[in-house]
Amino acid sequence: MAALLEVADLRVRFDGDVEALRGVSFSLQRGQTLAIVGESGAGKSTLAHCLAAIAPPQAAGSVRLLGRELLGAGEDELRPLRWEKVAIALQGVPLNPVATVGAQVAEPLRERRRMDRTRSWARAHELAAEVLLDTDLLERYPHELSGGERRRATLAMVLALDPELVVLDEPTAGLDPATRGELTGQIGELAAARGFGLVLVSHDLPAAAQLAAHCIVLYAGAAIEAGATRSILTTPAHPYTAALVGAYPLMSTTKDLHPIRGAPPDPRAIPAGCAFWPRCTQAEAICSEQRPPLAPARERLVACHFGGLKRLLAADGLHKSFRRAGRTVRALDGVSLHVAHGESVGVVGPSGSGKTTLARILAGQLEPDAGELHLDGPPAQARRPARALRARVQLVMQDPWDALSPRMRVAEIVREPLDVAGGWDERRAAAAVAEVLEAVALAPSGPFLDARVHELSGGQLQRVALARALIARPALLVADEPTSMLDASEQARLLVVLRERQIEMGLALVLVSHDLALVRKVTDRIVVLDAGRVVEEGSTPHVSGAPRSDTGRRLARAAPTFDTPAG
Prior knowledge:
Layout: E1 5-14, E2 18-28, E3 33-37, H1 44-51, E4 59-65, E5 68-69, H2 75-78, E6 86-89, H3 101-112, H4 117-130, H5 147-159, E7 165-169, H6 177-194, E8 197-201, H7 205-211, E9 214-219, E10 222-228, H8 229-234, H9 239-246, H10 285-289, E11 295-297, E12 300-302, E13 311-324, E14 327-340, E15 344-348, H11 355-362, E16 370-375, E17 379-381, H12 387-392, E18 393-396, H13 400-403, H14 410-421, H15 426-439, H16 458-470, E19 476-480, H17 488-505, E20 508-513, H18 516-519, E21 525-530, E22 533-539, H19 540-545, H20 550-558
Parallel strand pairs: 3-8, 3-9, 6-7, 7-8, 15-20, 15-21, 18-19, 19-20
Antiparallel strand pairs: 1-2, 1-4, 4-5, 9-10, 10-12, 11-12, 13-14, 13-16, 16-17, 21-22
C-alpha cells in the first residue's frame, strides 16, 4: 500500500546561509502517528510547514502526500490539498480577532463544502463538542477564550474537512498541566476514531509518548534518532536524546534537573561533522570531521559514529579480599558495574558492603584479585592499572583530612596533578588552578592560595579535593562519601557544585554513599551492594522508590525524613 506521506532528503535554507533542515527523510502510513521532537531551533516548525503544503520557496528534496509532490507545486495544485487532505494547527493559534470562533470553525465548511449558514453552524457545534469545547464559546471572539479553549477551537477547524493527515505544531505549548493532559488525551482519541495520520511537532516529551507510536529526534535540522517512541524515551541511544530526556521534569524521576551542556548551534554556522559534537560527552576526532549517517543501531536508526551512547567504564567480575587478624575478609565478590559517558551512577550499601573498595579499584588506586576494567574500549588489566586509567578516572575520597597533605598549600595541592602529568609552565598552571578553584566556589587568588589544610573548614577542604580531581580534566569522577562529614548546608553546596561541573565538563559520575536520599537527587541509576555483592540494580526512581532487595528496603527505611511523633 502506498504511503500517506513520503519525505526524502528535505532541505530548507533561509537567506542563503541559514540551514533550517538538512536532509530529513521518513515515511508515514495511513493512520500512523509520528512525533517530531527536539529543542527550540531544531527545525521542527519548518518541517511542519513543509508537510502541510506551505513550504518556503527555498525548500529542496521531496515531500509527497498521497503520491503527489508538494515541493515546487503551484498554488492551484496545493490549494485543494490544504484542509481537505492535510491540515495544520500552527503553534501561535492564529485566529482572526474580529471574527467569532464559530464563524472561523464554519468557514472551511462554507467555502469547501458549500454548506449554508445553518448547516455549517450545526456542524461547527458538532466539531466543538468533538474536541470538548463548550459550544457556547462559539459565539465569542478569540480574546474571550483561554489558551486551552483557543487550542481546542483550532483543532476543531483542523478537523472540519476530515483531512487524512493532521499536523499539530506545539499543540500543548503554554497550557497548564491539567489542560495539557485533557487536550492530549482528546487528540489521541480523535486520531484513533477518525483514523487520520498524525504528525505531532513538539518539545513536550510526555505528549509525544502519549500520542505517537513513532518518533524522530531532530537536532540542528537533521534527524539524529528515529524509532519506536517508547524505546527512544525510555532507553535513548543517541547522546543528545539521552540528554534531552534527562533534562525533562517528570514526576516519575527523583533526580534534579540536568540541562544539556552548551547551547544549540547557530543555524548560520552549524559545526562540521556531527552537529552535536561540541556538546557531546563522548565526542572524538571523527565526530568533528565526518557527518554520521542515520543508520540502524539498537533496533532503531541512530546518527552516531559509535551507534549511540558508548560505555566509558566497565568493571566486570571484580573480586577483592584482605587479610585481617589472620583471616581472609572478602570485600568484593564478582562485582560488575558499567558507566556510560556522561552518566551518573549511585553505589549504595551499608558500612562494610565494599563500596570504598570498589571506588578505589575503579580509580586505579587498588588492584583487584580478579576481574577486568574496560576504559573507553579495550580492557585495561586491573592487576596493572594503566596510567591513562588513573588520569581519566579521578577519586574524591571521603575524608579530605586524610586525602590532602598538611604540608602543602592550597595552590600546591590543586596543582599537583598537573605537575605529575608534566608539560605545564608556571603561568598556565597558575591560570588553571585559579579557574578550577573559582569553578568550585573557592577564592581563585589571594591569601586562600597559601592556606594549609588545618586552616580550612570541612566544606572548603572537600571542595579543594574536588578541584584537585577536576583539574586533571577526567572523563569519570568517583566520589566516595564526599558529603558524609559536612553539615547540611555545606553538603547541599558541594552537591550543587558537583552537578554544575558534571554538566559543564560532560563528566560521568559514580557517587558512593550510604545515604539513599542524597544519591536519588544526583544519579540516573543505583547499584546496591551488600557483603561485597550486587544485590540490586536499576533506575534511580525504581530503586529508591520501590526497592526489591532487603538491603535496598533497609536503606530506604533508614533514609532521613522529618517525620515527627504524633500529639
